[in-house]
Description:
The protein is mainly alpha-helical.
Amino acid sequence: MNRRLSIALAVVLLLLLVLAVPSCGRWWRIDQCLDAGGRWNDEQDVCEYQPGGRA
Length: 55
C-alpha cells in the first residue's frame, strides 16, 4: 500500500508541474518586461519597451 501511495503522489505532482510550467513561463516573461522598464500589453501578450524612452 505504501508503494501505491508513493506512485500516486508522484503522478499528482507530475501533473501539477505539467499544468503550472506554462503559466510560470508567461509570468516570467511579464516580470522580465516590467523589470526592464517596459509595459506589458495583455491583449497582444507582448512587452512594449522603448530603450531610452517611455514605454
